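Thread amino acids onto this structure.
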């Protein structure tokens, strides 16, 4: 059965409604997504920001604020700190960016007193439901870590596996991508991909299968794997996770899919105490709602596993 965001939403509806803390909530696109998430029984919200502006924006989109907790804080930096503290203290299950610069939002995430640090590196996961592919695809890192080292890639995989688990993928297949599927010492990315494969085989990257280096076609297209004679590989066009060599490759593929294909997607920041919803101003309403749903199932998985 094809897995998609409908299944993610159904899963979070079964595990109980979560609460999202919204930083600087006076943003029409974010409030529309929060409203939809509440109506779909995905999440309640605590709205932190300039209350007068929040009410003005809500009125403009026909949003009834009865039943929402609002914390009035006109100063954006202070609003972000108050919002992240809700997640830090366990009053909220996830943390979402509103009308605030990404740089300032991330400062609140990393704040030593009230932020969401765990001691682990942070990384970004984009989850896609793509026509013609019978499973969700997890792309990482396409937005946060620019030039990951081998150690960074290990942490990115470890951050991504629980997201896969939360979406129902128990033992995800991770494809470290390169331009070719063989090790070439002149292409360091392929050497690192082979090292990641070895580390996984040795049990140092648990909970998944790693097979690299792999070209993109071998990772996602079974026919390409068959034609290229890759039937000996652990991944034969059935990868769950696409691990990119750097942010340029990841971001280009991400934007190519978003802008050229009719897809459903959601994104979260991982490696934090709770899932962080870091959507872009250009992201669609549906992407924002999907991101809240994704964060909610990941929050439930973290709760169940005691992380």
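Threaded sequence (307 positions):
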């Amino acid at each position: 059965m094809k897995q998609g965001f409908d299944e993610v939403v159904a899963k979070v509806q079964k595990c109980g409604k979560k609460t999202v803390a919204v930083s600087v909530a006076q943003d029409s696109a974010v409030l529309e997504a929060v409203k939809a998430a509440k109506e779909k029984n995905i999440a309640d919200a605590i709205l932190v920001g300039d209350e007068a502006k929040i009410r003005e924006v809500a009125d403009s989109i026909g949003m009834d604020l009865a039943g929402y907790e609002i914390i009035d804080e006109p100063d954006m930096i202070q609003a972000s700190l108050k919002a992240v503290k809700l997640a830090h203290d366990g009053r909220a299950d996830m943390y979402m960016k509103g009308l605030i610069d990404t740089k300032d939002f991330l400062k609140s995430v990393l704040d030593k007193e009230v932020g969401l640090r765990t001691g682990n590196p942070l990384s970004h996961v984009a989850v896609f439901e793509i026509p013609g592919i019978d499973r969700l695809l997890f792309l990482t890192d396409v937005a946060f870590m620019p030039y990951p080292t081998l150690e960074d890639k290990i942490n990115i995989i470890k951050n991504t596996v629980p997201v896969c688990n939360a979406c129902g993928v128990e033992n995800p297949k991770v494809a470290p991508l390169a331009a070719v599927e063989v090790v070439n010492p002149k292409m360091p990315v392929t050497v690192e991909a082979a090292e990641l494969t070895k580390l996984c085989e040795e049990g140092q990257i648990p909970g998944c299968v790693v097979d690299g280096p792999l070209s993109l076609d071998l990772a996602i297209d079974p026919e390409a794997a068959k034609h290229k004679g890759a039937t000996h590989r652990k991944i034969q066009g059935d990868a769950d996770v696409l691990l990119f060599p750097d942010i340029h490759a990841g971001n280009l593929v991400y934007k190519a899919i978003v802008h050229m294909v009719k897809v459903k997607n959601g994104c979260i920041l991982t490696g934090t105490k709770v899932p962080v919803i870091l959507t872009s101003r250009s992201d669609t309403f549906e992407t924002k709602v999907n991101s809240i749903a994704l964060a909610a199932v990941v929050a439930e998985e973290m709760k169940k596993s005691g992380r």
